[in-house]
Predict the 3D structure of the following.
Amino acid sequence: SQTIHQWPATLVQPVGSPLSLECTVEGTSNPNLYWYRQAAGRGLQLLFYSVGIGQISSEVPQNLSASRPQDRQFILSSKKLLLSDSGFYLCAWGNYGHEQYFGPGTRLTVT
Amino acid sequence: TQLLEQSPQFLSIQEGENLTVYCNSSSVFSSLQWYRQEPGEGPVLLVTVVTGGEVKKLKRLTFQFGDARKDSSLHITAAQPGDTGLYLCAGGTTDSWGKFQFGAGTQVVVTP
C-alpha cells in the first residue's frame, strides 16, 4: 500500500530564515506530487506540482520554491521566510487518476 | 480557472439530524472528490464520482454528482459526533495534468 510522509510536523522559524519541508512517498512509482497551503479551517491553495523528476510547475508567484530530486521525494523551500508564509502545508500524490492522497501536513509558524 | 463553491460554509447540528453540503461550479469536471479533514491532519479521501448522475453511498453518507457534472452534494443521515470535520470537494479535468480545484470547505460540527 502507498504511504506518504511529511516532516517536520511542526516548525517555528523567524522571519528571514530559510525553510526546507520534505515529502516522500512509498509504494508507488512516478507519482504526480503536489504542495498545497491551507489557511485555518479553509480550502487548499495549490502551490506547486510535479509530473516527474526535475519537472516543477508553479501555480502562484511567491517566496517559495520546490524541487524533486528523486522520483518519490518532493521538497518545498524558501531562502528567506516572510510572516505571510505561515500556514499548514500539505503534500499529496496522485497517478493521473481521479484522486489525490495527502500527507499529515506541516504546521509552519513564522515569527 | 474553474471555481468550486461550497455551501454552507459552516453547519452546526445535533446528533441524529440530517445534513447536506453542496459543491457547485459553472464548469464541467471529469471527476469530483469529497474529502474530510480533522484539525491538524491531512484531508482523507471519502469518495470519487465520475459519471453524471452518479450516486455513491458510504454507510450514512450519500454522494451525488450532477447530471451535467458541474455540481455535487454530500448528504449525511443521522449525523454522529464522529462526522465532525471540514468537508472539502475537489474537481478535476482531463486536461489539467492531474491538478484539482478545491472548494473552500464546509465546517460541520455535530454535538451530542
The interface with chain A takes residues 6, 30-31, 33, 35, 40-45, 48, 50, 86, 88, 90, 92, 97-100, 102-105, 107 of chain B (CB under 8 Å). The radius of gyration of chain B is 13 Å. Chain B has a mean pLDDT of 92. Chain B has no helices and eleven strands.
